[in-house]
């Protein structure tokens, strides 16, 4: 059984992945513009089915696991996000949007709901995100969400045939609470 939170925003519902999501997820994850700074080169329907199947039995907030959520509108799946529970108090985020639905604020809106869940419901202390240093839309997204760029790692990762740079972004619970109180 696929378990996990259902998070609602003005325009979106974030929910655990379902088997029917495999088609749309493969559709956008296999696009070169989407894959460019991600861990995959290609993403087939079978890869997407494995991603969904791997979520079976995942218990949210278990250290060492990823919880994948579908980002949906009334029209269906527009993207997905991953919550990586690093330890009891810290989590890492990843997010992917179908290019047909980028540039509308969906990623920021989705991740604000995820941050409310992580800092609010789950009481996390710190949330981080690692981006390829060339991935400007991802850096802009985390800066928009109030994350601090804490590190620029230089040629630290072997990525798609060469050494690449990464940024580390982070946000603390007290910063999230302060902004929520404004
Ligand atoms: C990273 C990624 C999710 C960012 O998507 P995005 O669409 O740029 O981000 P948002 O959904 O928050 O949208 C913000 C844009 O929508 C615009 N926008 C339009 N309507 C808006 C609204 N109602 N509310 C907020 N923003 C709106 C903003 O002005 C902004 O545009 P700009 O970038 O031209 O300034 C996307 O580029 C992506 O999926 N990339 C491929 C996967 C990837 O590399 N992921 C990163 C791994 S960590």
Automatic annotation (TrEMBL):
Classification via Pfam families: Acetyltransf_3
Keywords: Acyltransferase, Transferase
Molecular function in Gene Ontology: protein N-terminal-serine acetyltransferase activity; protein-N-terminal-alanine acetyltransferase activity
E.C. numbers: 2.3.1.-
PROSITE patterns with a match to the protein in the record: GNAT (PS51186)
Top EC class of this enzyme: transferase
The N-acetyltransferase domain, residue ranges: 12-174
Cleavable signal peptide: none
InterPro entries: Acyl_CoA_acyltransferase, GNAT_dom, Ribosomal_N-acetyltransferase
One GO cellular component, as annotated: cytoplasm
Keyword check for Acyltransferase: yes
Entry protein name: Ribosomal N-acetyltransferase YdaF
Organism whose genome encodes this protein: Urbifossiella limnaea
């Amino acid at each position: 059984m696929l378990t996990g939170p259902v998070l609602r925003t003005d325009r979106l519902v974030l929910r655990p992945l379902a088997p029917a999501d495999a088609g749309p997820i493969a559709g956008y994850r296999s696009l070169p513009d989407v894959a460019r700074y991600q861990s995959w080169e290609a993403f087939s329907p079978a890869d997407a089915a494995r991603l969904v199947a791997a979520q079976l039995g995942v218990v949210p907030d278990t250290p060492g696991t990823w919880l994948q959520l579908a980002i949906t509108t009334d029209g269906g799946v527009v993207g997905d996000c991953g919550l990586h529970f690093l330890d009891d108090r810290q989590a890492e985020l990843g997010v992917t949007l179908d290019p047909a639905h980028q540039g509308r604020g969906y990623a920021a809106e989705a991740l604000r709901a995820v941050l409310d869940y992580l800092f609010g419901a789950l009481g996390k202390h710190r949330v981080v995100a690692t981006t390829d240093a060339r991935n400007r839309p991802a850096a802009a997204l985390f800066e928009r969400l109030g994350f601090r760029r804490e590190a620029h790692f230089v040629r630290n990762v072997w990525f798609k045939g060469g050494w690449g740079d990464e940024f580390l972004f982070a946000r603390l619970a007290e910063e999230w609470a302060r902004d929520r109180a404004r």
